[in-house]
Amino acid sequence: MRQEEAGLDTYIILGKYTQQGIAKIKEGPTRIEAARKAMEAGGGKMVAWYLTMGRYDFVVIAEAPSVKAAAAVLLATGAQGSISTETLHALTEAEFKGVVSSLP
For 14-92, where are the alpha helices, taking DSSP H only? Predict the structure, then answer.
């Protein structure tokens, strides 16, 4: 089933480890799995997780049924103190084409 058919919105999450997160970096894989399970419990999906170099330490591509569901997972994860995030609500190419076709 394609994302549009499933009613899921796409989010690009840019993350940074806090000092606490770096101090406990060996727990990182366990925290990623916990975030994946939390997203699934909220009706969404962690599509991909990438370690990155530069301004952000990691990037997550996720899908969620609503902005409220995405926010709930991100707030709960951030409240643990190991990461900070910046989240972008993304539209697929097909959604972009729909937006553009509806312009006057």
Answer: 19-23, 28-41, 67-78
Domains in the chain (CATH in brackets) are 3-101 (3.30.70.920)
Residues 6+ apart with CB under 8 A from 14: 55, 56, 59, 85, 86, 87, 88
Query: Could you tell me the pTM of the whole model?
Result: 0.88
Residue whose entry in the numeric block shows the structure tokens 């997160």: 21
SS3 for 8?
Answer: coil
Q: Give per-residue burial for 54-68: e unless 16+ CB within 10 Å, then b.
A: eebbbebebbbeeee
Q: Find where tokens 């409220």 sit.
A: 68
Q: For 6-51, how does the pLDDT look when each residue is reduced to its tens digit (9 = 90+)?
A: 689 999 999 999 999 999 999 999 999 999 999 999 999 999 999 9
Residue type for position 75: L
Cα–Cα distance, 79 to 91 (Å, whole number)? 27
